[in-house]
Amino acid sequence: xxxxxxxxxxxxxxxxxxYISNKDLNNSSVSKATIGWQLDHSLKVFNAVCxxxxxxxxxxxxPKFNFWRTVLFPINYIPRGRVKAPRIxxxxxxxxxxxxxxxxxxxKTNLDALLKSPETVYFKHFIFGKLSKKQTLKFLQMHTHHHxxxxxxxxx
Length: 156
Fold this sequence. Notes:
By secondary structure, the chain is mainly alpha-helical. Helix content is 55%, strand content 5%. It has a single domain, classed as Four Helix Bundle (Hemerythrin (Met), subunit A). It has 5 helices and 2 strands, in the order ααααββα. Strand 1 and strand 2 (129-132) form a beta hairpin. Helix 1 (3-19) runs antiparallel to helix 4, helix 1 (3-19) runs parallel beside helix 5 and helix 2 runs antiparallel to helix 5 (133-155). The N and C termini lie far apart (35 Å). This is DUF1569 domain-containing protein. InterPro entries: DinB/YfiT-like, DUF1569. It holds the Pfam family DUF1569.
C-alpha cells in the first residue's frame, strides 16, 4: 500500500477540520456554494466511497480501460463545474459544525477500515468506472483536494 498516499489523505482530512470554523463563508466569484458545502460534500463522498469499497465483492472487479480515468488520474485533476454532485452526496440546507465533525470522525475510521480491507476490493464510479483499491485511494485524494482547492480560493 502506498504510504505516501495514506499520509496525504490524512493530511487532507486534517485540512478539512481546520476549515470547519469558516463553513459559512462564500465567494460567489469562485463558487455558488459555501465552504461548509464544500467540506460536507467532500466528507460525504469520502465516507460513501470508503463504505461502498469496503463492502464490494472483489469477484465482481474486472479492470477495464476508461478514457477519463486515463486522462485525469495521471495529472491528479478534476475539472470544476463539469459534474453535478449526485443527490446522495449533496449537503443539507443547513450544515452544522457537529455534523461535519461526526463525518470527519467517520472518514478517519472508514479510511482505517479501507486500508485493512483486501487489495481486491473496488469502487464503481459513474464516470471513471470500476476503480481498484489503489485507484480508489487516488480518487479520494483527487476529489478531496479538488474541493479543498475551491475552499482555499474562496478564502483568498
